[in-house]
Specification:
single chain, alpha/beta, five-stranded mixed sheet, about 15% strand, binds nicotinamide-adenine-dinucleotide
Length: about 425
């Protein structure tokens, strides 16, 4: 799923480019690259058909010098430990880019959620949390939703953690509102993707967002909300692909109608009557201005990058671009706004949820979005400044900013 180079190697290669610019010593590189703690657990589950199945789960805590480690929990059938390491380290850099007081972690339960009943998924989530709860908690490691997990999953996480540790909603973010979730958390990542798209397209590239053609891979939490905000900003979403199929319409898809269709059809855009169906594998060849990968990692490769027609790529997904593809996109002068900036809205509002839980206060959606925008625009400008200073890519600029912050915190705390 991650191509010939594994995801951790590929993230570390990006890390090295930034480390070179900062002239970081080998010792420091090793320290900052190496995950702090890695846990593998086995979860035996009695399935509804009576059989016993053993599932595997991982939690990697990458770095916690700037605060409790924070990261998503994902259900996925073939994510490796190295993939989880890579995603955990990206979270360290992401929280540092937006300057929120968290480190980076990531977790995965190896399973295909489409083949499990809600009861089986609940049992699996509870087993996983019960096995790793000793390293979780509001001051240690905070779980949030990710690929294939949602507010319901986070409710199970909170409940299971609470069995041993008492009621502590700040141990998990992305919870339902009824259980201390935050207004705006669900839409936060998509909102941030839309904000970064607006900034990059209008301010950096000097173009008009009205009528700009957007192509999307993934129409879940990130892609769906991202499409909604971009549609509201006047962009035209002309093609969307997901696991079930793909639809396109040159004049722009009716996004509210497409969202309603997906809600009624197990989350997929397939079968949408307001557009023409096409093969999702042809997504990369579609004509458009802005491409937003918002599904899996490793999809922009040396094979797909040359096919891209857009002049801006905004990474909604984590690690969608391989280093080989990055090189091709740079040569082709396609601007890439990296994941650790573009999709940091989710981490930012997770931080707001944590703050609200700890202080027993609640902010409304307008307050949340206003605070999110302030943080993201600040980070966007700070990355832009690094890009100017070092004449580097936006990915390297974001990593330089993050590495500096993590290195400094490490130095102040000591070893
Ligand atoms: P989701 O499960 O809500 O949606 C995933 C979408 O991707 C679905 O539309 C699915 O059909 C599609 N998809 C899955 N496999 C695909 C394939 N092989 N080809 C085409 N489409 C495919 O997940 P999400 O929360 O929207 O996360 C999407 C990405 O964004 C992930 O990389 C995740 O790590 C990243 N991310 C999510 C958040 C968040 O707050 N949810 C925050 C930061 C980054």
């Amino acid at each position: 799923m991650t191509g010939p180079m594994n995801l951790f190697e590929s993230v570390n290669r990006q890390f090295d480019e930034a480390a070179d610019l900062l002239d970081l010593s080998q010792e420091l590189r090793e320290l900052l690259r190496t995950p702090y703690r890695e846990i593998t657990v086995a979860m035996p589950i009695r399935m509804e058909d009576g059989t016993l199945k053993v599932f595997k789960g991982y939690r990697v805590q990458h770095n916690g010098v700037r605060g409790p480690q924070k990261g998503g929990l994902r259900f996925h059938p073939d994510l490796s430990l190295d993939d989880v390491r890579a995603l955990a380290s990206l979270n360290t850099w992401k929280t540092a880019v937006v300057n929120i007081p968290f480190g980076g972690a990531k977790g995965c339960i190896q399973c295909d959620p489409s083949k499990l009943s809600p009861h089986e998924l609940e049992m699996l989530t509870r087993r996983y949390i019960s096995k790793i709860s000793m390293v979780l908690g509001p001051t240690r490691d905070i779980i949030s939703p990710d690929l294939n997990t949602n507010a319901q999953t986070m409710a199970w996480v909170m409940d299971e953690y609470g069995r041993k540790n008492g009621h502590q909603p700040a141990c998990v973010t992305g919870k339902p509102l009824e259980l201390g979730g935050s207004q705006g958390r669900e839409a936060a990542t998509g909102k941030g993707v839309a904000l970064c798209t607006r900034e990059a397209w209008t301010r950096v590239l000097g173009r008009d967002l009205k009528g700009a053609r957007v192509i999307l891979q993934g129409f879940g939490n990130v892609g769906g909300h991202g499409a909604r905000f971009l549609h509201e900003l006047g962009a035209r979403v002309v093609a969307v692909a997901d696991l079930g199929g793909a639809v396109r319409r040159t004049e722009g898809l009716d996004i509210p109608a497409l969202l309603a269709h997906a809600r009624q059809n197990r989350g997929t855009v397939a079968g949408f009557p307001g557009g023409e169906a096409f093969d999702p594998a042809d997504l990369w060849d579609q004509a458009g201005d802005i491409l937003i990968p918002a599904a899996l990692g490793g999809v922009l490769t040396e094979a797909t990058a040359p096919r891209v027609k857009a002049s801006l790529i905004v990474e909604g997904a984590n690690a969608p671009t391989t280093p080989g593809a990055d090189r091709i996109l740079r040569e082709r002068d396609i601007l890439v706004i990296p994941d650790i900036l573009a999709n940091a809205g989710g981490a930012t509002v997770s931080y707001f949820e944590w703050v609200q839980n700890l202080q027993h206060v609640f902010w409304n959606e307008a307050e949340i979005f206003e605070k999110e925008e302030k943080i993201l625009l600040q980070a966007f400008r700070e990355v832009e400044e690094q890009v100017r200073r070092h004449r580097c890519s936006w990915r390297t600029g974001a990593l330089v900013l993050a590495l500096e912050r993590v290195r400094k915190a490490n130095e102040l705390r000591g070893w």
